[in-house]
Write a structure and sequence with these properties.
CATH superfamily: Ribosomal protein L7/L12, C-terminal domain/Adaptor protein ClpS
Structural class: alpha+beta
Protein name: ATP-dependent Clp protease adapter protein ClpS
CATH class: Alpha Beta
Order of helices and strands: EHHEHE
Number of domains: 1
Function: Involved in the modulation of the specificity of the ClpAP-mediated ATP-dependent protein degradation.
Pfam families: ClpS
InterPro entries: ClpS, ClpS_core, Ribosomal_bL12_C/ClpS-like
Bound molecules: L-tyrosinamide
GO molecular function: peptidase activity
Number of helices: 3
Radius of gyration: 26 Å
């Protein structure tokens, strides 16, 4: 019998798999918080204006926040989420409403 590698005797092999590295960017939930003072109509307008929701969707989310204390308005990449939060907070500040909007990694 030959000592060449034409059979499996004593052979070892290492199989390495390289993961295709197509990492998706992390997503962030943008949430609206309830308070006792911000008018419901203002919250609905904010949802329509900055999140592109229709009137019915906006009323539904506003009522969820009103009843449960908070709701996720949408899920976005970091910079988009940051911009939405800043737009809501600036609009609330300009109109002197205590409305709070935050983001959190999903
Ligand atoms: N709770 C407010 C009210 O009764 C309405 C409201 C809803 C405020 C959603 C903030 O994110 C909010 N006028």
């Amino acid at each position: 019998m030959s000592d060449k590698d034409d059979d499996a005797e004593g052979d070892t092999s290492v199989v390495t798999k390289t993961k295709p590295k197509t990492k998706r960017p992390p997503l962030y939930k943008v949430m609206l918080l309830n308070d006792d003072y911000t008018p419901m109509e203002f919250v609905v307008l904010v949802l329509e204006k900055f999140f592109g929701l229709n009137h019915a969707q906006s009323v539904e989310i506003m009522l969820t926040v009103h009843k449960k204390g908070l709701a996720v308005v949408g899920v976005f990449a970091f910079e988009i989420a940051e911009t939405k939060v800043a737009q809501v907070m600036e609009s609330a500040r300009r109109n002197q409403h205590p409305l709070q909007c935050t983001m959190e990694k999903e």
